[in-house]
Structures are given as structure tokens and as C-alpha cells.
Amino acid sequence: MDGFNLRHLVLAVALSTSMGTAFAATSNDFVDKAAAGGIAEIETSRLALEKSQSADIKAFANTMITDHGKANDELAAIAKKNDIEVPDSTTLVKQAKEKILDMRDESFDSAYANYQVKAHEDTIELFKKEANTVTDDKTKGKTDLKAFAQKMLPALEHHLEMAKKLQAAHPDK
To answer: What are the two backbone dihedrals, phi and then psi, of residue 85, each rounded to the nearest 5 degrees?
Structure first.
């Protein structure tokens, strides 16, 4: 795998995550990170649809776009209901796209698969932490966010299993 290309993919995700916290006026750290991570999943998967010639990569990318799109919509609805500010997705998408440089097709599949494993491991850790929070405090929407995290964990764990299979099928070259 071309480390240079993977760094650009990781940079886009890091930018999305840091941008999420930059918009946090009256927000929640979990909402910021989950929204930014979901947007990064969708954008890297859209890139995979453009760059990859592999049927399994494209199928996985379509699943990520659909599942993370639905999850982001649900998270946004919970945030709105509880007056929690969500990072501006238009800005995050624009910034992520500006930072993703052209990746060579022959190294993209392994870079994408490796990224998906790492991203899902990190996301599962974030969601487990939120799922295990104590909800007797007065933080806005804490109970709703905890329920959302608990609900999403099985799908995220399934995504990780799928990503690991992709990683095995598309090893570093």
C-alpha cells in the first residue's frame, strides 16, 4: 500500500473530526464526533465508488453510504429534539473533499479497507463509551444519545467484521 495515499485518507477523516469539535457551541462531544465520523465514512465510501474496480469494495462502500447516512439522519433528529448543535455537514464534506488528493487506483482498495477497519474500531469505542454512560445527570439528550449508541453498536460491529474481510481480501501491496 502506498503510505502517502493512506495519509491523505486519514487526513480527511482527522480534518472531519477536528472540524466537528470546532463547531461545538452548544453541542455534545459524542454528537460532534459521531456526526463527523459518519460524514467521513460516507465521503470515503463515495470516493471508493469512484476509485475502485473491485465489486466487494463497491458493495461495502454502498452499505456504508446507506447505513451511515441513515445513522447521521437519526443522530441529527435526536440532536434537534434536544437542542444540541450538530456540525455543519456541508462544510465538513467540502473540507474533507479538499483534503483528499488523487489516490492511485492500485493502492486505493487496500488503503480503503485498512481505513475502514481503523475507523470502525474507533467508532465502536466511541459508541461503547456513550452506551455505558450514566444518564442520571441533567445533560441534554443524554438518555436519547445513550439509546442511540446502544442501538447502533451491533451494526457498527457488523461493519467492522465486513471491513476485516475486505482487509484480508485486499492486502497491502
So the answer is: -70, 135
